[in-house]
Design a protein that fits this description.
Elements lengths: L1 H33 L1 H4 L6 H14 L1 H22 L2 H7 L4 H4 L1 H38 L11 E2 L5 E8 L6 E8 L10 E12 L5 E14 L12 E14 L22 H27 L3 H10 L13 H5 L3 H6 L3 H67 L6 H26 L4 H5 L1 H18 L7 H19 L7
Antiparallel strand pairs: 1-2, 2-3, 3-4, 4-5, 5-6
Helix pairs in contact: 1-4, 3-7, 4-7, 4-12, 4-13, 7-12, 8-12, 12-13, 12-15, 13-15
């Protein structure tokens, strides 16, 4: 029995690691394509790129594991079914569920490991990855001089070059607007040169411009006694070297503490604490707003002035619903003169209109705050559902492979990709509805799990009982029986009159 278990484990582990590598590569390309615009053209060091790629690989492991388990179990049991090894196992009196036992233990262990990774390792990885990405986004792009186009990548200079020799790096017909010093607002200083080079210094912190055969034009301060005069200075040079300090071209890493409070960077315990604090803050804001809206009317102020004449300015914290209930507002209102009544009604109507607009704005504000709370809830549930998906997909892939009896990378890949896409669509749809508050949140997030778990139980039952679920002959026989039944029904003789 041990040899059989080792044989099944070896048959599974080979496809598992192969498909895990393929899934990580595909998901990595998808993530990299989304972040490509933030990375390309920034002149990043090789170690920085390697560090970013490492964080990306670690961040997609929880999503790649369920697909790898599904594909590997389909391939392993499909190969054994195609080579009649499952038939030999069943002929020896060993049931399919008993043969699956070592892989069930492996899948449970993998689900627990995936949960621990998502809860303890993934928050740290996400913190470092997003901090590095934000640092890269803030980094100025690498300098690229293009022909006939003004380059604004430098702080103190705007450069235009009409001809760029890509072979030796020589620039020709150069025009430079110098915005340093007092000319930072206007184009008071213009430099033109026949040729030149733009190079970075060895420490990569400064730009060195070497210009040949040019002139420098600079406007001089005006003489207010002679307003019609516009003096300027022109200097010719055969060679001039300009060094400009580059700001923002180095990768300055942001502090990780700014990202640690985001929901993707928190563990289950921290998500619960953060969600409770956000709930408490939102409830207090709503309570204060409702209290202010309920008593923010001229009629209420007149009522409290009648109750407490010594009150100069009414404060919301002094107002309670019990203090309103014990007084008759109508009797107090009727005590005023007709002119005061009209003023009270007009001011109350204006206040109601203002409150309507403020309520609309606050509702949007409260809704956005509630969506942030929903995101924390969704992240809390996803750490569990993605881990359980490893176990659920094994109970789908293994019996389905035993039923299909096709190994290799053909049919198993098609079936597994279809199932995973279906799972991802249901999961994404549920998260969207839960984030918008359209469905009960836990039901929306667990919808994909509640659909696929019964499918796994059903397929395991069918495979254990040698069901012909995927056999075309069984369905053909079923339809043939229906046709025979209909023919017999038509050929029944009519009763004689």
């Amino acid at each position: 029995m041990k040899r059989l278990h080792w044989f099944i484990i070896r048959s599974f582990l080979g496809p598992f690691f192969m498909t895990l590598f393929i899934c990580i590569f595909v998901l990595m390309m998808q993530l990299l394509w989304q972040k490509l615009d933030d990375i390309v053209g920034k002149g990043l060091d090789t170690m920085v790129i390697a560090e970013l790629f490492g964080y990306m690989v670690l961040s997609i492991i929880p999503l790649a594991l369920p697909l790898s388990v599904l594909l590997a179990s389909l391939m392993a049991f499909g190969n054994m079914g195609e080579n009649y090894e499952l038939t030999a196992i069943k002929a020896a009196g060993i049931s399919l569920t008993r043969a699956m036992r070592p892989l069930i233990i492996f899948s449970v262990s993998l689900a627990v490991a995936a949960f621990c990774f998502s809860n303890f390792v993934l928050p740290v990885v996400n913190t470092k990855m997003y901090t590095l990405l934000w640092s890269i986004q803030r980094k100025n792009p690498e300098v690229a001089i293009q022909e006939g186009i003004f380059t604004y990548d430098f702080d103190d200079f705007v450069i235009k070059v009409n001809d760029v020799d890509n072979d030796n790096g020589m620039l020709r017909d150069i025009m430079i607007y110098d915005h340093s010093g007092r000319s930072s607002t206007y184009n008071n200083v213009v430099i033109v040169a026949d040729s030149g080079r733009i190079e970075m210094t060895k420490d990569m912190r400064n730009m060195q411009m070497t210009l040949y055969s040019g002139e420098r034009y600079s406007d001089m301060p005006k003489d207010y006694k002679r307003p019609n005069n516009h003096p300027f200075q022109r200097d010719k040079f055969s060679k001039q070297v300009i060094i400009n300090e580059l700001n923002g071209f180095d990768l300055e890493r942001m502090d990780e503490k700014h990202a640690r409070s985001l929901y993707k960077m928190l563990s289950l315990r921290h998500l619960e604490v953060k969600k409770d604090s956000l709930d408490s803050v939102l409830n207090k804001r709503v309570e204060r707003f409702v209290t202010r809206m309920n008593f923010n009317s001229q009629m209420t102020k007149h009522l409290f002035n009648a109750i407490r004449p010594d009150t100069v300015q009414l404060e919301v914290r002094d107002i309670t619903s019990d203090s309103i209930a014990v007084h008759n507002m109508d009797s107090i209102y009727l005590a005023y003169s007709d002119e005061n009544k009209l003023q009270i009604l007009e001011s109350s109507l204006q206040s109601a209109r203002n409150n309507e607009g403020e309520i609309s704005r606050k509702m949007i504000d409260f809704y956005n705050s509630q969506k942030i709370i929903y995101k924390h809830d969704i992240e809390w549930h996803k750490k569990i559902t993605l881990s359980l998906a490893c176990l659920i997909f094994f109970f789908i892939g293994a019996p389905l492979g035993a039923i299909i009896r096709k190994g290799g990378l053909g049919m198993p890949v098609v079936v597994s990709v279809f199932l995973f896409i279906f799972y991802h669509i249901i999961s994404t749809t549920g998260e969207k509805f839960g984030r918008e508050g359209s469905w009960i949140l836990w039901q929306a997030v667990w919808m994909s799990t509640s659909i696929f778990a019964p499918v796994g139980v059903f397929l395991t039952y069918k495979a254990a009982n040698d069901s012909s679920l995927m056999s075309s002959e069984a369905y053909l026989d079923f339809f043939k029986k229906l046709n025979i039944f209909k023919k017999k029904k038509k050929e029944e003789p009519k009763e004689s009159v």
